[in-house]
Amino acid sequence: MTYQKIVVPADGQKITIENGKLNVPDNPILAFIEGDGIGYDITKASKRIWDAAVQAAYGGQRKVAWLEIYAGEKAAQQYNGDYMPAETFEAMREFIVGIKGPLTTPIGGGFRSLNVTLRQVLDLYACVRPVRWYEGIPSPVKRPQDVNMTIFRENTEDVYAGIEYESGTPENKKLAKFLREEMGAKFFEDAGLGIKPISAFATKRLVRKAIRQALDAGLKTVTLVHKGNIQKFTEGAFRKWGYEVAKEEFGDVTITEDELWNNFNGKQPAGKVVINDRIADIIFQHTLLRPTEFNVLATPNLNGDYLSDALAAQVGGLGIAPGANIGDYIALFEATHGTAPKYTNLDKVNPGSLLFSGCMMLEYIGWREAAQKIEQAFAKTVSQKIVTYDFARQMDGAKEVKTSEFASAVIQNL
Ligand code: NAP
Fold first, then answer.
1. Any catalytic annotation for residue 343?
2. Are 379 and 393 in contact, with CB atoms under 8 Å apart?
3. How far apart are CA 131 and CA 295, in angstroms?
4. The pLDDT value given to residue 185
5. Of all helices (H) and strands (E), which one includes residue 129?
6. Cβ neighbours of residue 181 under 8 Å, at least 6 residues apart?
7. What whole-number distance in Å separates Cα of residue 323 and Cα of residue 150?
8. Which stretches in the chain have pLDDT values below 50?
9. By CB atoms within 10 Å of each CB, which of 6, 14, 194, 401 scores lowest?
10. pLDDT at 109
């Protein structure tokens, strides 16, 4: 594939897919999108740390070849006003794994959101958010060390399907007439209308990924989070199809919570993941009061949206929460916060979210040692009270440093 603006590094090799698995060379090409606003500062700082950690973990035997691809304002400069150039998608398809900083969605640019567009075009159907606490990080809860969960949130249906009809429009009137006259539905005259599709196909591929994660990581439970007590044929169906995929495809390695109590007296047998489900409202209480009971949470789009941010707050907030959007193979890791425009080019903000998303990326390609080195060095740096402004304002006696200085301190601690 030849590209117009993207320069493929000569010293790297492509990640490929062989027998359903990623085949990762020692010098893989990994794509990155710098991002708008604070994207420049956090990407620059994080790349220094990722490279140093890979060097520290593998002593020069492994090295990332970075491939810059473009989206957002930097793309608009490069591609004559095009905020989302087609070759960015092509490069992600060709090179499979990448990471991105936050993006501003141009007002009136014809996009609902650049982030949503990336997810939809590349069919990155699982939004994956691990939530865990690192020693020393300020937290509003008493025992943040008990929080260690990964949320798998469906990325293509539910509210993200974006099927809405504005009150007063001809489309709204047509749908309202059909719903009232042919389906017997009752609702107020001026209601805006939205459709919430949830399918067996999308639910099963999401829950399948969540169960695989639990199995790979040796975790105990996968919890299906839904509002099926009210919306039986969408949220309730998510629950039903979640249990179905567990039984049909992982029947020998999973049991339901009912089976756990009926057949095993509540004692989890070795090698089996328990599949259970919780109503979306109660999960907020349970994850706050009894976080150790949960490992992997699989959710439809909207429930997962709320839950991801609430859980991130328990362990230090969005400034350090990592995330990824993953399809069958293509994976785009991302900072979960926005562009924080008021801090653009001030070298001020916390690079943690992007940095830890990079750790997820290193784990995704099987370079766990490098990821662990970063996690340990980050924790050590925070415990030395060397932190960016956001943590400094929550800690006594902290030394506030710039983004680049924080990166240097983490590298020292690798
Ligand atoms: P935001 O950029 O996340 O910033 C909100 C606040 O969060 C900041 O003012 C700052 O708090 C804190 N914050 C964010 N990143 C931080 C970091 N790295 N370190 C420390 N603190 C950090 O949210 P927003 O202001 O609502 O959105 C701004 C733009 O970002 C919008 O154009 C939006 O569309 C876009 N956005 C993009 C993404 C994405 O690309 N994934 C996600 C969300 C929003 P303080 O003011 O308290 O210091």
1. no
2. no
3. 10
4. 97
5. strand 126-132
6. none
7. 10
8. none
9. 194
10. 62
Contacts of 277 (CB under 8 A, 6+ apart): 223, 224, 225, 226, 228, 239, 242, 243, 257
Helix (H, G, I), strand (E, B) or coil at 19: coil
Per the residue annotation, which of 51, 82, 146, 305 is the catalytic one? 305
Amino acid type, 376: Q
Give residue 329 CA to ligand 1 midpoint distance, Å: 28
pLDDT tens, 166-202? 999 999 999 999 999 999 999 999 999 999 999 999 9
DSSP string, 208-261: HHHHHHHHHTT-SEEEEEE-TTT-TTTHHHHHHHHHHHHHHHHTTTEEEHHHHH
Looking at ligand 1, which residue's alpha carbon is closest to its atom 41?
102
- State residue 59 phi and psi, 5-degree precision: 50, 40
- Give this prediction's pTM: 0.94
State pLDDT tens for residues 67-123. Answer: 999 999 999 999 999 999 999 999 999 999 999 999 987 776 666 789 888 998 999
Beta-strand pair 126-132/322-326: antiparallel
pLDDT, position 91: 98
Determine the distance from the C-alpha atom of residue 220 to the mean position of all C-alpha atoms in its chain, rounded to a whole number.
Answer: 21
Residue 193 near residue 176, CB atoms below 8 Å: yes
- Ligand 1: residues with CB < 6 A are 38, 42, 102-105, 115, 319, 334, 337-341, 349-350, 353, 390
Q: Could you say which of 160, 204, 364, 380 is catalytic?
A: 160
Is 305 labeled as catalytic in the residue annotation? yes
Question: CB–CB of 41/345 below 8 Å?
Answer: yes
Exactly one of 100, 204, 209, 227 is catalytic; name it.
Answer: 227
Beta-bridged to residue 332, according to DSSP, are: 98, 325
**CA–CA separation, 30 vs 67, rounded Å?**
6
